[in-house]
Amino acid sequence: MFETKKVVLTGGTEGIGRAIADDLLDEGHEIAICARTESKIKEIKKLHPDIHAKQVDLADRHNAQEFIDESISELGGIDVLILNAGVTGLKEDKEYAFKVNEVANIALSRTAIESLRENHGRIVFITSDTAHTDLGGGIETYREGKLRMEQWLKDFSGKPENQDVTIIMISPGSVNTRMHQEVLVFGVGDIKHRTELKIMEHQLRDPKVVGKIISKIALSGKNFNPQTQEYSIPIKSGEVIRISDQNIQFESVYDKK
């Protein structure tokens, strides 16, 4: 039997976030999203008039807290909080990147946790393989932020009072988004060279496919099983999930049917 979920998503107007939002809406779930750019909020509202969408600069943690409070009021609670928004720090100063990538995510999690406890909900954090690979090139703030957030969320998941909330971290791999374009323009050294190679060799993943996978993991709390081709592998709270090539291939083929 279908159960409508109430999902709050940050960074929901482009890239992976937009793909997650589109998939959730297509499946009939209630969602609230935020993004920095007002024009993109207006654009998604035109396509989905019933969506709860707000322009929010997450660099101000009070804005982040207010967004959660308003989302809880509008949706009547939260089942899933997806922490997707982030900046590379290549165009922004380090303090701004720190506030968006870390301070905001902590504020969002703490503000939402009571509602998530009541609903036995989930926090899903979109992390990155770069968290564990020091490639330099100007994205050190981004990399270090992802690594610190992984540790903070693991510690947060281990608190006895949060035992009814599952915290999942998902690393989507290299995805064709604005961030990779920023690396090409503003990055230097090894990280820029690797990005150029991935683009030339068509190794960047489709954000629509990645978004669909994240949506399924977030809603089910289970990882993809390549043997059964189902989302059936239980995920432990505090675990980091890396989206596999088999998962990408399965959803890519399924999406074309």
Could you explain the architecture of this structure?
With 257 residues, the protein is of the alpha/beta class. It has a single domain (6-174, 206-252), classed as Rossmann fold, CATH 3.40.50.720. The chain has nine helices and nine strands. It has helices at residues 15-26, 38-47, 61-75, 94-118, 140-157, 178-186, 189-200, 207-220, 245-256, and strands at 6-10, 30-35, 52-55, 80-83, 122-126, 166-171, 222-225, 230-234, 239-242. The protein has a seven-stranded parallel sheet, sandwiched between helices. Strands 7-8 form a two-stranded antiparallel ribbon. Strand 5, helix 5 and strand 6 (166-171) form a beta-alpha-beta unit. Helix 4 (94-118) runs parallel beside helix 5 and helix 8 (207-220) crosses helix 9. The two termini are 24 Å apart. The mean pLDDT is 93.
